[in-house]
Amino acid sequence: MEAKAGHGAGLLLTMILIGVILLLILPLTGGLLYALLVNTIVGFIVIFMVNAIFGLGIKYDLLVLIFVAVFGLFAVLILILLNLMRVSKNKK
After folding, report:
1. Measuring CA to CA, which residue among 44, 47, 50 is closest to residue 18?
2. What letter would DSSP give residue 4?
3. What Å distances lie between residue 33 and 3, 15, 86, CA to CA?
4. Per-residue exposure over 46-82, b if at least 16 CB sit within 10 Å of its own CB, e if not
5. pTM over 0.70
6. Torsions phi, psi of 21, nearest 5?
7. Residue 3: what pLDDT?
8. DSSP annotation of 91
């Protein structure tokens, strides 16, 4: 499942907004859930900024968004490396 042109940024911003709302609702105890949520939000922001600034062409499909939501900055690093090595799931 792939987002059509123009919908990736909106979907990404919506997920970031949901994360920020959850961040405000969570008690700031410094627990593991708080750290994972911060890592996820930072991951979404970094992948969006890297893609916008450097024009890597990473598509925001469901798999990429779930991967970044679960693994955060580590996922962004992996996605950037895969993109630079020209690895794509849409091989013809």
Report:
1. 44
2. P
3. 28, 17, 34
4. bbbebbeeeeeebbbbeebbebbbebbeebbeebbee
5. no
6. -60, -45
7. 46
8. -
Check: CB of residue 12 under 8 Å from CB of residue 65. yes
Identity at 39, one-letter amino acid code: N
Query: Are the C-beta atoms of 2 and 59 separated by less than 8 Å?
Result: yes
Residue 84, sorted as left (phi over 0), alpha (psi -120 to 50) or beta, turns out to be alpha
Mean pLDDT for the chain overall:
77
Considering only residues 29 and 15, tell me which one the structure prediction assigns the higher pLDDT. Answer: 15
Cβ atoms 84, 54 nearer than 8 A = no
